[in-house]
Amino acid sequence: MIELGIDLGTANTIVCDTDAGIVLDEPSVLLQAEEPRGHRRVVTVGRDASSLLGRTAGGVRALRPVQDGVIVDTESAETYLRALIRRVAPRPWQRARVRAVIGVPSGATPLERQALIEAADEAGIRRATVLDEPVAGAVGCGIDPLERRVHMVVDIGAGTSEVTAFCYGGVLATRSCRIGGDEMTTAVAHHLRDHHLLLVGDRTAEAVKIQADRELEPSIVVQGRDSATSRPKLATIPVAEIAEVIRPISQTIVQTLAGCLDDLPPEAVEDILADGVQLFGGASLTRGFDAVLENAFGFPVKRAGNPLTCVAEGAARCLQLPDVLRAYGIS
């Protein structure tokens, strides 16, 4: 039996094997080629497919089967999941016995959850359970969601941002908005176009956003195409300028999620003040985001030691925690 925890994210898919640990961490991209009679052939998935975004010829499409944390096309998601399973379980006899817990945004509708379960079943995962990503991420950070005290976690991904408070097998309050790291990337691309006449693709804008978060120098050099002349162009962009572009989106996310505090019972505040708020997700690495969150919530904020992988790791760990799956999961 192969047991997997799957974080099927908008930007990246991470798969954790209960025995081998992280076995896949690649972009959530599927490359398909059109064939006669309307058939589609999978060319590649993951990092190889992502490198061809915006570079494919006619008849070949690079698709993102997940948007805002949920599948948007069941057929593409099924094809993508099947390709993933072949990557982590290359032998047919291995694929015959796959059990998985798949993370899903807490704001996903029942229909979106059911679509994911059906896509997983068609892809060969006969025993699939969907679990809210905030709960899976909490388990991956070492939090017990069945404990008799309130815990609050914030998950900031590429497509969704969520805050969830839970205690003893039940969700006390949750807020979700379909805004995340992708909107930050889009804002960077628009800013470079409007203020520096520099045209860049999504991959470059994402790289600029990440570099600005990590850069110790006051500026970074960005390469793109001049919007006026269509010629290659280099521009020196201050790191502080990129931070200013991203800040309004961060504040919008936090203001939306802060509404969760109004839904909490007064008794929950003492526990959260003592333990703090656990922060994870790829976009949580944005410079200064934890400080913005702390100011808005009024609680201490702790960034996870494994913010990018804790959802997949927690989902895999839940396969050994049937009580957690019974309380929070849907099969």
TrEMBL record:
<dbReference type="GO" id="GO:0000902">
    <property type="term" value="P:cell morphogenesis"/>
</dbReference>
<keyword id="KW-0547">Nucleotide-binding</keyword>
<feature type="binding site">
    <location>
        <begin position="282"/>
        <end position="285"/>
    </location>
    <ligand>
        <name>ATP</name>
    </ligand>
</feature>
<dbReference type="InterPro" id="IPR056546">
    <property type="entry name" value="MreB_MamK-like"/>
</dbReference>
<dbReference type="Pfam" id="PF06723">
    <property type="entry name" value="MreB_Mbl"/>
</dbReference>
<dbReference type="InterPro" id="IPR004753">
    <property type="entry name" value="MreB"/>
</dbReference>
<dbReference type="GO" id="GO:0008360">
    <property type="term" value="P:regulation of cell shape"/>
</dbReference>
<comment type="function">
    <text>Forms membrane-associated dynamic filaments that are essential for cell shape determination. Acts by regulating cell wall synthesis and cell elongation, and thus cell shape. A feedback loop between cell geometry and MreB localization may maintain elongated cell shape by targeting cell wall growth to regions of negative cell wall curvature.</text>
</comment>
<keyword id="KW-0133">Cell shape</keyword>
<dbReference type="InterPro" id="IPR043129">
    <property type="entry name" value="ATPase_NBD"/>
</dbReference>
<feature type="binding site">
    <location>
        <begin position="10"/>
        <end position="12"/>
    </location>
    <ligand>
        <name>ATP</name>
    </ligand>
</feature>
<keyword id="KW-0963">Cytoplasm</keyword>
<feature type="binding site">
    <location>
        <begin position="158"/>
        <end position="160"/>
    </location>
    <ligand>
        <name>ATP</name>
    </ligand>
</feature>
<protein>
    <recommendedName>
        <fullName>Cell shape-determining protein MreB</fullName>
    </recommendedName>
</protein>
<comment type="subunit">
    <text>Forms polymers.</text>
</comment>
<keyword id="KW-0067">ATP-binding</keyword>
<dbReference type="GO" id="GO:0005737">
    <property type="term" value="C:cytoplasm"/>
</dbReference>
<comment type="similarity">
    <text>Belongs to the FtsA/MreB family.</text>
</comment>
<dbReference type="GO" id="GO:0005524">
    <property type="term" value="F:ATP binding"/>
</dbReference>
<feature type="binding site">
    <location>
        <begin position="206"/>
        <end position="209"/>
    </location>
    <ligand>
        <name>ATP</name>
    </ligand>
</feature>
